[in-house]
């Protein structure tokens, strides 16, 4: 049994507007837009598929108050592509963001609701990921996070050091999942979190128990009686185990 990362979930004051921004930014389509959620997927995508990690945006009235512990890195193919993408994103409503990155070859921006993301300089490792190069998670111990998440999912652990851990789907497609060491403390609930989904033949409750045996803990964020299970990983980052599909 195993799970796989199928989407990231973003909280937003205006989920429809933020969905339109990210659909334009990634060249994706809005596949659902209602009072409960706004879903984004690549054009012609057959969900779920490891070639992409989709985006699910949830309307939440609480404002963003701290730097996100989860963000996305966008891939580029050339210096010209990077510059053009940055300019296009700013026309869509992105703004420059200073998170203490200093003089680096990538550019840090914030979406219209203040969620930080990076537009990377061209890197060969991300040449086949699609528009999202990586989903990046701040953490205190990349080795521990790499161990947990490589056992939680059927993703391959490609690299682990004291400063980072890198995973990718075992099929070798789609974006990477990267855990980056930081001293920043976790403050409150994450504005962006990971959503996992078991395979169709697996049992949801059994898979939740397996994740608990790896170190996940149950979390009550006021979700009430829902079909999915809310858990926290070994560094207390919340994530959701969705129903099998």
UniProtKB/TrEMBL annotation:
InterPro entries: Glyas_Bleomycin-R_OHBP_Dase (IPR029068), Glyoxalase_6 (IPR041581). Pfam families: Glyoxalase_6 (PF18029). Signal peptide: none annotated. Residues 8-120, 134-242 form the Glyoxalase-like domain. It comes from the Bacteria. This is VOC family protein.
């Amino acid at each position: 049994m195993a799970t796989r990362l199928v989407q990231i979930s973003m909280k937003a004051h205006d989920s429809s507007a933020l969905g339109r921004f990210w659909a334009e930014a990634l060249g994706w389509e809005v596949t659902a837009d209602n009072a409960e959620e706004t879903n984004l997927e690549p054009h012609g995508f057959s969900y779920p598929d490891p070639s992409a990690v989709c985006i699910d945006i949830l309307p939440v009235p609480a404002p963003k108050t701290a730097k996100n512990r989860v963000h996305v890195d966008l891939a580029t193919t050339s210096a010209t592509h990077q510059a053009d993408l940055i300019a296009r994103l700013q026309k869509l409503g992105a703004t420059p963001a200073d998170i203490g990155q200093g003089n680096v070859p990538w550019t840090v921006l914030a979406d219209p609701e203040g969620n930080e993301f990076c537009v990377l300089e061209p890197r060969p490792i991300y040449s086949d990921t699609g528009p999202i190069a990586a989903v990046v998670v701040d953490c205190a111990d990349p080795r521990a996070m790499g161990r947990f998440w490589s056992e939680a999912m059927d993703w391959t652990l490609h690299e682990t050091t004291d400063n980072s851990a890198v995973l990718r789907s075992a099929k070798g497609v789609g974006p990477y999942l990267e855990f980056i060491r930081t001293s920043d403390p976790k403050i409150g609930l994450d504005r962006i979190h990971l959503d996992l989904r078991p395979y169709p033949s697996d049992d949801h409750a059994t898979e939740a128990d397996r994740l608990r045996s790896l170190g996940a803990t149950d979390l009550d964020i006021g979700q009430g009686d829902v079909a999915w299970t809310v858990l926290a990983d070994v560094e207390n980052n919340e994530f959701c185990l969705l129903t099998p599909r």
